[in-house]
Amino acid sequence: MTPRTMPRLAPRSVLLIVLGVLLVALVVGMEQLAPLFRAWFPDQNPAMYERESFLNLTLAHVALVLVSSLISVGVGVGAGLFVTRPAGREFAPLVSTLAAIGQTFPPAAVLAIVVPLAGFGFVPTLVALILYGLLPVVQNTVAGLGTVPPQTLEAARGNGMSAWQILWHIELPLAMRVIVAGVRVSVIINIGTATIGSTVGATTLGTPIIAGLVGNNLPYVIQGALLVGLLAIVTDLAFERLERRFSFGASGATP
Amino acid sequence: MTSPAVSTVGAGRVLANRVLVTLLIAGLAAAWLLPFASMSPNRLASGQSVALGGALTMWQAAGMLVLTVMLGLAALQRPLSRRLAHGVTLTASLALLLITLYALGDYAQRTLVERSPSARVSQGAAFWVIVFCCALAAIDTLQRHASGWITRLGYAALAGGAVAFLLASGHFRDLSIMREYANIRDTFSDQLLTHLGLVGAALGPALAIGVPLGLLAHRRARVRGTLFSVLNVFQTIPSIALFALLVAPLSALGNAFPFLAELGIKGIGAAPAIIALVMYALLPVVRNTYSGLKGVPPATVEAARGMGMTQRQVLWRVEIPLALPVMLSGLRIVTVQAIGLTVVAALIGAGGLGAFIFQGLGQYAIDLVLLGAIPTIVLAVIADFMLQMLVALSQPAGTR
Lengths: 255, 400
Description:
- The complex is a heterodimer of chains A (about 260) and B (about 400).
- Chain A is mostly helical.
- Chain A has helices spanning about 5-30, 35-40, 55-85, 90-105, 105-120, 120-145, 150-160, 165-195, 205-215, 220-245.
- In chain A, helix 3 crosses helix 6 (about 120-145) and helix 6 (about 120-145) runs antiparallel to helix 8 (about 165-195).
- In chain B, strand 1 and strand 2 (about 50) form a beta hairpin.
């Protein structure tokens, strides 16, 4: 990739702001669009999902993703650090393989298996999201730490830096962009899986979608899907910015 | 990151293989603390736990004990050499896995003889943990041993074959999940075929559209940024939202043009599912086609032109063959992803294995959920494995 130049950066930031504002406006003011939906679907009554406010649904969705992602990142980065230290290096191949195989498991299937074991509702969905969200974080932490050149580590050791200092001042900053990319994948997958969580009793933005699909009510489906789609896109754009902030000079970003 | 560092690790320590020790401790703790199976009077009642000790016959318990001791010795690598320890681990973990499976089926058969026919025996948490630990021990040993493709394939085939034989022999027939399967046997094969059909129907168009787009991205730098941004948006939208958002325009289309509805283009069913799967599949196909073509050394292309090849010949005889491994790894990502996403398509009435999952979740019938989820996972893992082999085979001879 050629280094991104300023003129290409600007429209993206504008897009992020515009979509972010649109998301907030829709979350707060979806109810104001009721006449529009009524005109669009004259046969559908009610044409606006009212069992729960969209603000509450969005907050519940965000809370689910936020809590699960924070735990995933904490445990995932910790596991990635453990298997790249001398004490845990023996576990590295197994953990890497596990992360790779685990990611071929469909998130919906993982959700479906975990949830009945732990009961229905918020907590089981959370557990499933944490388990699945861990994998990209572990994988990218190991990969990111692996990109740090051995000469750099050697030089740091030669300068008398302790293992902690090397980790904190050299390894983590250099690996940060790849780690953040892993967190981005994890969060985006979790936003999608949390939506499916509404089929197992968690309240999320998927709730109106499922209610609409079951009750044959298209407006419900559109309202839920619009919000959750926007939420995912805005989050992804925000992470893209964050990732770029951590790239040092030469950008290795994949398109 | 693997072999050289790992193989020297632990040469002089008491615990030569700490991964295996960890797995053994986890397995033993599960066997001690968690239920191995559960017994319930009927399909819907919650079960009563049965510990591992209570479920085994004498010889099964003895066999498990011997295999555990063997694994312990292999972990210490004391009387055994490293090579021998690897062999012992591979053999003993597979044997332990098979005994565990056999013991569960056997327990179900023995117990249900003396109970009412509606009683159900299900697998418990300890069963899953033991199976999982056995599988991990085998995977880790194959990696430590730096085994080649043939060893791994052979081992996987042996293990898969043994499990398939146990399944086919009807040994598990009294297990709750297999009784559930017996009820839905016909629908099961229908839904499995529907699932595979949806994946196949999506992969065709995805390749037909994605590969030319990847070529375009390679040739025209100007469109590249926009193209990837748009395709990335498709990937970002949660699957269920994308499926659902397609329901509206397609049902409008079907209503406006009844002949389209008769062709199957309507709000719910296969049409929106396939379109959404294609939209998801485009980014990996286009991205890998692009990076595969980008990876072809310019000198090679130059040399081909110098030999008088036309642009079309350069593309088909030089660029695409050299880009093929990267393109195939794109196909691998897409196939695995499509198998998983098709689960969600059941929510918009497209059928597939997801139908069992959501039906089971609705009825609180966990066996039905597992009958949908486990085959999906197995399908994804098999597809991943096979396409990995294909990628390895497609490497040009010089670089293999």
